[in-house]
Amino acid sequence: MIAPMLMHPNFDPVAFAIGPVKVHWYGLMYLIAFALGWWLGRVRARDAWRGWSRDDVGDVLFWVALGVIAGGRLGYMFFYDFERLLADPLSLVKVWQGGMSFHGGLIGVLIAMWWFARSRGRGFFDVADFIAPLVPLGIAAGRFGNFINGRLWGTPSDLPWAMVFPDPRAGDVARHPSQLYEALLEGLVLFAVLWWFTRRPRPAMAASGVFLIGYGVARTLVEFVRVPDAHLGYLAFGWVTMGQALTLPMIAAGAIFATLAVTRREPSPSPTATERARRSRRRGRK
Questions:
Q1: Are 204 and 267 in contact (CB under 8 A)?
Q2: What is the DSSP code (8-state) at residue 135?
Q3: pTM of the model
Q4: pLDDT digits over 55-78, tens only?
Q5: Angle at Cα 277 formed by Cα 275 and Cα 278, nearest 5°?
């Protein structure tokens, strides 16, 4: 007997409307992601040994949000849709048409964290290690947004949870719900690992290294059952995708950070050290 195919719920992309203003699910997922990051950051700031205040959390997440949005859009256009960008430069700001890149967003976040660290006299990894555990649940929210929109589906499958997606380009074929795989692995599982790992003081670079390795491995695995962008296809050997090519440097960097954390065992900057650095920077400006 052939098992019945699951059908994608084919959600309305508009979550709700207030008069002429329509709020889309995908945009709502970004708001949820930032709200979760803010709440989790305030929870972490309760531990005095971390050297973070609740005001610090709000300030850094403001810059991180800008980095995610600007970097995510720029990254998508440069990595995945460069020809369209050349033909229509204004497409860069047409975010309502879709197209955000995790790797571009990561670059934007790195720049935002560097700016925040520099402005507050903190070490870069003091900021990065604090932020790392806040990110995975935001990734999960974004992947749920992809699922609601019925995009980024997987390859054909006969597994019991495979489903038919409404987009005509997906065909009337049951496919891996790869968005949910990513939400689980890159989001919930990685969050659990990082939250547990950072429950007590760790050497500088350790949390950042675990995040990069964890995300990189999860993304690489899911890419094997996720259909690449149609205009890009597979880059090599009939299976290498752009997502895997961009993720490989993340795994390498994460391995380097984790190794340095273990061998150097430099403690994350204490509040006292941070304050000394801030005073030193103020004296340098006089």
A1: yes
A2: S
A3: 0.84
A4: 999 999 999 998 888 888 888 787
A5: 65
